[in-house]
Amino acid sequence: MNQNSVAVKKDSRVLFVDMNSFFARCEQQVNYWLRGRPVGVCVYTGKYGCVISLSTEAKERGLKAGMRLNDAMLVCPDLVPVESNPARYRGYHTKIINVLKEHCMDVVPKSIDEAIINLTHHENTDPLTIAKKIKREILERVGDWLTCSVGIAPNAFLAKLASVRGKKQDGLLMITHDNIDDILRPLRLGDLPGIGGNMSYRLERAGVMTPLDMRYAGPQKLKAIFKGIEGVFWHYRLNFIETNIVSHEYRGMQAMRQISAEKRKSMEYIDQLFMTLCLTLEKRMVKHKFRCKAVGFTARYEDGTRWDDAFALTTPIQDAISLMRGIRLRTEKFMDMMNCGPIFNNDITQMRVSVTNFVNADNMLYSLFEDMDQKETAFKTMHAIKDKFGSDKLIRAVEMTDGQVIKDVIGFGSVKDLSELDYKA
Ligand SMILES: [Mg+2]
């Protein structure tokens, strides 16, 4: 289902539901003792565990998602660290989506704690009434600690913006043709989801100083600033045209392989296998035309221990190189910090790479890479060749080249490369 079109939408009939501090509130939901306390959900709760979700109370104490647990404890000594429970969050997610679907079948989950409800074709409904009802029903029927913010607007992007801006106004805000300029006026460029520091700088240099300027800059000017179609999409987003509602059947994909005692003697084999897993995922993402915004990597070792990592990306990716690079940089940073041996070593018995949090590749919402389209075409061609000839030799040749590139990238990799990665989850 692709609900995009270039028509300017008049009425505010798209709802964006964003659960507040979702993981932390799920934990407070099931454990009464955690309520009212600063809670930090972590993938693991050791000293170097990374906080991935904070309760409202913890945010009020100045903590930020992505902090290491030992740093967070210094800022807030009574922080309660809790190990994450993905199955629990998926369970609540499903229950919430089911509540939303009772009002309208046009529900598109955007992530584990966000969903779009499109009431465009449900003319006998009042979006404001439905928004209030949804907020109440989630509290009454899913969990009394699970609050959310609902934004309403003519398109999904502005509805998301409304959900963010409305957080402090009872979690309910509607953007319309009449009030959009007043809502945009106090905002800075960086307040728009998807506009980062680099892009703000480029816009400002071109004389587009605020989101309001951006709304009236015109598609051609934005196209020139963004050096591509992405600029036109920004014009659309701020002028009531839909570019953001897409859905697909996939929540996530993974590629996994066991490694025999014989095979794991060779580091070359392990490196190649890692590359193959990433290429498998790349191929599947290319085929389904989406990119991922979250990556997971697990390695299991002979002695029963494992390395488990998951991270979110500010720029969605699709290609194996970015996947490998992201995973490698994280392991290397960890090794540097912990002063431990290599995570890729001869004791690995199993490797698993997973990708989730997809966005459609037809209309990149948040990517600020200009060369993305070009790169994608190259990869598509590569996969087409592979499919057609199925030749091992051909695959090898292409992948060897990539391998060299990857080695170089990693060789020069430093902490500044990590700025591309967002340690949110
Ligand atoms: Mg949220």
Compact summary:
With 425 residues, the chain is α+β, with helices and mostly antiparallel strands. The protein has helices at 22-30, 56-60, 69-75, 86-101, 127-142, 156-165, 180-184, 197-205, 211-216, 219-226, 229-238, 267-287, 320-338, 372-389, 392-412; strands at 14-19, 39-42, 51-54, 80-83, 107-111, 114-118, 148-153, 172-174, 252-258, 290-301, 306-317, 348-360, 421-422. The chain is built from 15 helices and 13 strands.
What does this structure look like?
The structure is a single chain. 42% of the residues lie in helices and 20% in strands. The chain is built from 15 helices and 13 strands. The strands form 3 sheets. A 5-stranded mixed beta sheet has the order 5-6-1-7-8. It is globular and about 65 Å long. It is α+β, with helices and mostly antiparallel strands and 425 residues long. It binds magnesium ion. Magnesium ion binds next to strand 1.
Low-pLDDT windows of residues: 363-379, 385-425
Query: Biggest sheet, in brief?
Result: 5 strands, mixed
Q: Report the β-strand fraction as a percent range.
A: 15-25%
- What level of helicity do the residues show? 40-55%
**Gap from first CA to last CA:** 28 Å
Total tally of structural domains: 3
List keywords for this structure.
425 residues, alpha+beta, Alpha-Beta Plaits, MutS, DNA mismatch repair protein, domain I, Dna Ligase, domain 1, 3 domains, five-stranded mixed beta sheet, five-stranded antiparallel beta sheet, 13 strands, 20% strand, globular, disordered C terminus, binds magnesium ion, DNA/RNA_pol_sf, UmuC, DNA polymerase IV, DNA_pol_Y-fam_little_finger, DNA-directed DNA polymerase activity
